[in-house]
Amino acid sequence: ALEHVLPKLGSLDVPWATCWGNHDDVDDFQAAHDALEGARHSLYRGGTTHGDYRIEIRRAGGTGSTQAAAQLFLLNSNRLGLGDWQLAALRRMQADAVRGAGQSLPALAFFHIPVFEQKSLYRPQQTPGVCHEEVCNEKETGRAVPVLAEQHGIRATFCGHDHVNDYAVRSRNVDLVYGRATGHAGYGGDKVRKGAKLIELDLVTGSYLQTTVFADGSRWKPV
User: How sure is the predictor about 90, in pLDDT bands with cuts at 50, 70 and 90?
Assistant: First the structure.
């Protein structure tokens, strides 16, 4: 699958990154890490950390210099959800980011399997969006959100896993956002139109907007 998809991603001529999901299984994980890191335009840097890494976003200064403006944290939730190793990695990456920038920067976090609060805080007929599938947070039981909120930098998290859910809840000032399934394969297209997330991050204010977009260019946002 990697041999098939990496050249296609590289041909788009835009930077790209990825995080691991529960169906991403290979015979040689290090070979997969190496392939991801070496692919054209790839920002993947999880080869020495089991798939946990961060991307620093910089904005241009007045004299052509750049300065850190935001962080993206990408975590490998594997088959069980965020656990001890991923949360320890997140703390290390947050500490590194603060040391480098001298302050806690606005950030977004990405992982595949949802956290417990995406189940416990959802209210049928009250939470905007769509939920056509039970939230499968696997073994994550609520330990992740306190760590995600510790440095007060992470504005939102984005997950997938449950193909026909597309909604957001809020816990400890962190938005916990579902992204519905995209692409031509995978289940759920009979219940929820396939789509992707467009995320716009303001590098001055640190605020963000998220919208579901479809292949024809139309957009959807829960009301």
Answer: very high
Output the CA torsion sign for 87, 90, 95, 96.
positive
Q: Give the Cα separation of 107 and 154 in Å (integer).
A: 4
Show Cβ contacts of residue 141 under 8 Å, excluding neighbours closer than 6 positions. Answer: 116
pLDDT computed for residue 223 by the predictor: 72
- 3-state secondary structure at position 198: strand
Helical residues (DSSP H) of the chain, grouped into ranges = 2-10, 29-38, 84-101, 117-120, 144-148
3-class DSSP state of 103: coil
DSSP structure string for 43-94: ----TTTTT-EEEEEEEE-TTS-EEEEEEEEE---TTT-S-HHHHHHHHHHH
Q: Which of 57-66, 98-107, 119-128 has the lowest mean pLDDT?
A: 57-66
Q: Is it the case that residue 64 has pLDDT exceeding 80?
A: no
The conformation of residue 141, written as its DSSP 8-state character, comes to: -
